[in-house]
Design a protein that fits this description.
Elements: E1 27-31, E2 34-43, E3 59-68, E4 96-97, E5 100-102, E6 114-116, E7 120-128, E8 135-145, E9 155-159, E10 163-164, H1 165-170, E11 175-176, E12 185-191, E13 202-213, E14 225-228, E15 233-236, E16 281-292, H2 296-351
Parallel strand pairs: 6-16
Antiparallel strand pairs: 1-2, 2-3, 4-7, 5-7, 7-12, 8-9, 8-13, 9-10, 11-12, 13-16, 14-15
Length: 352
Amino acid sequence: MGGCGVTSPAGAQPFVIEAPLQGCGSTVEMLGALIVYTFSLDYNPSPIDGLPIVRTNPAVVQIECQYNRLHNVSSNALNPTWVPYTSTISAEDVLGFSLVIMSSDWSGPSPSNTFFLGDLINLQAPVDSTNHEPLRVFVDRCVATPGSNASAPAYTFIGNNGCFLDSQLTGSNSQFVSPRVAQSVMQFQLDAFRFYGLTTSSIFITCHLKVTLASANVDPLNKDCSYDSALSQWSSVDGNNAVCSCCDTSCANAPPFRRGSGAPKHRRRRASEVSAPAGWQETISVGPLFLEKVSPLSSVSQALSPRQDEVSADSQFQDSILGAVVGVLAVSCVAVLFFTYRKAKGSVNTKQ
């Protein structure tokens, strides 16, 4: 097998060949979630004893040994001194990022991709971290465009490494949803808008997502911050608002991030020195979303409201007039009855 012969005793059957995975001419490939070692098993028949003939054909058989990439391939017991291979992330790993338009109650994907000005568009950015250590996902940057390509105009509503710029620039209700439903999920809301001067109502959203270990501290490059217009301040979804202080300047050139006094002392790195491995970040687009100016139901309601108010006012006026007439009639009847009674009583007294 690949130059390695039978290791069982001569004449013993079945034949046994022991070969190391990375020896005997093997080749290795990464196929999806598998590590595949391939060997060539060569059979070369020997002539029949004493005769110059053979009655079998030579053959070459390909043998594959397949292992899951996320599991240990040794036949020995695994006694890790740090963390097992199954929970260690490699820069070669491809994580399952996604970006989904969600329903108004976050129960699932939105059944419609049509929204109206004044709506909040719910978006969810999860990462599938199966067989990995817990991960924390961040929405690093989001751009809206009228087309699926990077066409102009383009509106960056999240930028500067996770700062929700739209709420600061326009005073909108756009925000990251806090607290997180899970470390591997980020939910955020975008106040619906249209592009000025364009006849098309479609919008495509492209976001750059990335992850870090959930056990790692947030920092100016790995954060998600919302802006509170009422308080004129930034706040972090993950609770450490200090990492948002660079949202008004440039987070890529933020000064060294200082932890609390109780943290261990070590060399502090500038934010620009830290970057996620290639497999820990991905750019994803979603769309088209169609933005309408006013809801049809809202228009009908607004058109009917004045008429209803007029009808209500007329009705109240009519009721007031009717009430006044009834009151006058009631007083008149009482007066007539009173004078009739007095007159009748006077006549009786005179006869007596």
